[in-house]
Amino acid sequence: MLGIGLIGYGYWGPNLARVAAQNPRARLLAIADRDEAALERARRQHPGTRRTREWQEIVDNAEISAVLISTPVNSHFEMALAALSAGKHVLVEKPMARSSAQCAFLVGEAAQRSLTLMVDHTFLYTPAVRRIKEMTDAGELGRILYYDSTRINLGLVQRDVNVVWDLAVHDLAILDHLFEAAPQAISANGGDMLGAAHETLAHVTLYYGDGAMAHINTNWLSPVKMRRTLIGGTRKMVVYDDLEPDEKLKVYDRGAALNACETEDRRARLVSYRTGDMWAPHLPLGEALAIEFEHFTDCIETGARPLTSGSMGLRIVEMLEAASCSLAQRGQPVELSRLRMAS
What's the CA gap between 223 and 154, in Å, rounded? Predict the structure, then answer.
């Protein structure tokens, strides 16, 4: 059985601990957290697991083969590097690290030691996103024209990152998964409406080489919680509502096309609309986090490349850096190629 150590038992850590403890191929051996109250919660939920306030004890434990990191992003690099240096596989919460330079270093360290480095981009393991990926790969939607996401709620305002790094990171991961090409440029506008020292609401736009666009609306100050995404293709359109209890995914056989014809030596353009059926595809049951953890154990066992690999985590942080750079320039588009050259 795979010996597992968890660092961080705050907001997301209990979920990671639960799926690790429930997986028949793994054994949760130790949990680290600086907060005594968090360790007390861990004791009640996992009474047979060692608990410590020192995360380094997780790294030094010879029985532990893989480390799960669920701490503030500013600590990810130090902890992940220590675990990799100790010869342990790593699953780290998103975003992978505070900078693309740190991410690149971790990717190199994992490759050099033939270790699995995986990022907890859980949405890519949801049945809905997996079904959308199947449709895009099969060409069922046609060429993707736009991606429009609303990801808003009241809180939780983070202390170490802004709303883009906290909420938009989910959509950036989905976009990286769905689109074959990386965006050419990113622009972002936002503001700090609470005096929290970083943006509490922001709008992010991604520009792709084929003319496609993606728009992400993020907000920590919304009176309602929304997790809704529209994906428009030349053949079909999709509405993905993660808060829907049953029909999270709806596919619309609808769209618009521009018809051109020559009339009296000038081109007349007419828009034609198609309004076909709507259906909700059947989605298999299964918790995304449990599926993700099973994939993590598979990759450790076989040496396969994770779906949400360290290299993917690096690409997401590069996009986050571009958005942050644009925020500082009040929406000026930032080309990702220039950002990579500058770094």
Answer: 6
